[in-house]
Amino acid sequence: LCCTPAGFDYASVRRWTKNKNIFSNDLMILPVNHDNVHWCLVVVDVAARRLEYFDSIEGFSSNDFSHLLLDKVERYLHLEAEDKRVGAHMASVRWQHCVW
């Protein structure tokens, strides 16, 4: 998923989880490359409905970047839930965002 203001194209990535229910996992760990310079991490806590952003270099990623990234991950999760028909509750749930 590309974290740009233009967003992402779910149709291009939907096959990544063909025949998989990602929501059956307790946690999902998503390494994120930031501008080919630095790595950060997003943890999806499915049970708690929480998205957590971790960055080892305080201030490297702007607050705008972290929130934009979490918004994109949340949008992906909603589209994935709708596409895989895992239930209306997953497609409409609001995820808590945490930046560490």
Topology:
Blueprint lengths: L9 H4 L13 E8 L3 E8 L4 E5 L8 H22 L3 H5 L3 E4 L1
The tally of beta strands, per DSSP, is: 4
**Spans of 5+ residues with little confidence (pLDDT < 50)?**
none
Q: Roughly what percent helix?
A: 25-40%
SSE order in H/E notation? Answer: HEEEHHE
Give the neighbour order of strands across the main sheet: 1-2-3-4
The major sheet is characterized as: 4 strands, mixed
- End-to-end Cα distance, whole Å, is 21 Å
- Report the principal-axis shape: globular
Beta-strand residue fraction:
25-35%
Would you tell me the structural class of the helices and strands? alpha+beta
| Tally of helical runs | 3
Mean pLDDT reading:
84
Entry summary:
The chain is 31% helix and 25% strand. By secondary structure, the chain is of the alpha+beta class. The chain has a 4-stranded mixed sheet with strand order 1-2-3-4, covered by helices on one side.
Please describe what this structure looks like.
By secondary structure, the chain is an alpha+beta fold. Helix content is 31%, strand content 25%. The chain contains three helices and four strands. Strands 1-2-3-4 form a four-stranded mixed β-sheet, covered by helices on one side. β1 and β2 form a beta hairpin. It is globular, with a radius of gyration of 13 Å. The chain starts with 9 loop residues before the first helix and ends with a strand.
List keywords for this structure.
100 residues; four-stranded mixed sheet
